[in-house]
Specification:
Elements: H1 4-17, E1 21-26, H2 37-47, E2 54-59, H3 62-68, H4 72-78, E3 83-87, H5 91-95, E4 99-103, E5 108-111, E6 120-122, H6 126-142, E7 144-145
Parallel strand pairs: 1-2, 2-3
Antiparallel strand pairs: 1-4, 3-7, 4-5, 5-6
Length: 154
Amino acid sequence: MTDAQALAAARLRLLGAARRRLAVRMPALPPTVLAADAELAELRRIATAGRGAHIRLLVHDAEAMLREGHRLLTLVQRLPSLIEVRVPVDETELACPSAYLLADTGGWLFQPLAERPQGRAGFGDPAAQAPYLRQFEAGWQRARPAGVLRALDL
């Protein structure tokens, strides 16, 4: 894939195929990614799919989501136990420029450089997804919760 439209279509297809679990690593989460109505509907569906539902986002700058008013923020704040956001603290993880989206059905979308609309995807391919999932799990374990995104009930 070499353009933003193809990337968005692959992302939506992957979200549509996911059942209950999703792992997303985005160094920066632009306001156009995971923010379209169809993407938000799929994210809501996954998060509320029942027992075992869990969406995990690993982002370098959670405060940017807040500053930019990212549309995903509403879901994150309404479903904090189902949609979890963490920020890496490890220098190695922070230096990694890639982004990926991993679905529980073995689907994956990988962008070597997150800020460029280029990447590759696989659907129903857990063997190809495995290295990305291992990398995500390692980064997730070392990251800290993005407390800045929590809703304040005043």
